[in-house]
Amino acid sequence: MLLGDRVRWSRVEVASTEGLAPAILVAVLREARTTLLGRGDPDAALHLVRERLEGRERDGRPTTAGWMSLPRGASTVGGGDDVPGPVDALLGRLGLERFSTWDWMVTADEPPAVEAEDAVVRLDPVVDADAIRACLAEANPGTTADPTGPQEAAWCGVRDGDVLVGVMGASLRGGSDEGGLSWHLHGLGVRPRARGRDLGAALTAAVTRAGLSAGAEWVSLGLYADNERARGIYRRLGYATEGEFVSFGPAGARRPPT
Ligand SMILES: CC(C)(COP(=O)(O)OP(=O)(O)OC[C@H]1O[C@@H](n2cnc3c(N)ncnc32)[C@H](O)[C@@H]1OP(=O)(O)O)[C@@H](O)C(=O)NCCC(=O)NCCS
């Protein structure tokens, strides 16, 4: 996940644990916003957040962050959505509130064939941009994916006459070495009237296959932890869960950062 993401970072601070369970905290520094991403043991990751806050307070530097994702565990989510856990005591200093729970999944293998893949066509992210957006507005209004976003690798869709009834895109990410690449899938949406016909699975299989044939070492995606329907599709196609997160955003945030 970090190897894939690092192509998008220009300035980072990295802290890791010594003498504790393994964890790493990456702070991606942008002009307007710092994003914190923890990986590894949940308690140890939380310890790194606390150390970062204390260090910044000691130096008189601001402690607020624009966004934060930490591994899910007793120290971060506590007793569940309504019961505060140890992380909640830090959120005021970070200027954040709980936003979501989400998972990161990945595969490096060709997915099994899905019959409906025959209906999937490659889209032009510029020419088809408005049609893709119209489909997403109905099928997946919460997504931040956009066909004309930076680093888009491909968009696929299924048409019913002139109308796109399902779409999915992918963006380019890094690989294990300098110059290597992976694909990150996003923006899967099938209009309600076309659901239950395997189109979601067909779109995911087709874009995954396109990524692997374009040289991606792996293909990744993120999903909200409660999206069992999407999870069923991804599992069936060979995706494995490699990270379970809880994320925190500014008050009133309605979408995660892109
Ligand atoms: C998720 C989504 C793309 C699925 O599209 P779809 O074309 O209906 O999907 P498919 O027909 O390929 O597969 C649906 C599968 O979910 C299963 N399913 C349906 N409701 C389910 C539920 N509540 N819980 C678990 N599985 C469910 C179906 O039985 C089917 O399983 P199968 O693959 O074993 O047959 C569509 O519901 C959608 O656009 N949702 C809103 C946006 C979204 O959540 N996108 C994914 C973001 S990660």
Describe the model.
The chain has seven helices and eleven strands. It is an alpha+beta fold and 258 residues long. The chain folds into two domains: 2-103, no CATH class; 110-237, Gcn5-related N-acetyltransferase (GNAT) (Aminopeptidase). A hairpin with a 6-residue loop joins strand 1 and strand 2. The protein starts with a helix and ends in a 9-residue tail after the last strand. Bound molecules: coenzyme A. The site of coenzyme A has 20 residues, from strand 9, helix 6 and helix 7.
Note poorly predicted spans: none
How many H/I helical runs?
7
Tally the structural domains. Answer: 2
Strand content: 25-35%
The CATH class label of the largest domain is: Alpha Beta
Summarize the biggest pleated sheet. Answer: 11 strands, mixed
The set of bound ligands, ions and cofactors reads: coenzyme A
Q: Structural class, judged by helices and strands?
A: alpha+beta
Q: Give the oligomer, counting copies of the same chain as homo and different chains as hetero.
A: single chain
Annotated CATH topology of the largest domain? Aminopeptidase
Shape estimate: elongated
Biggest sheet: strand arrangement: 1-2-3-4-11-5-10-9-8-7-6
Output mean pLDDT.
94
| Series of H and E elements | HEEEHEHHEEHEEEHEHE
Compute the separation of the termini in Å. Answer: 15 Å
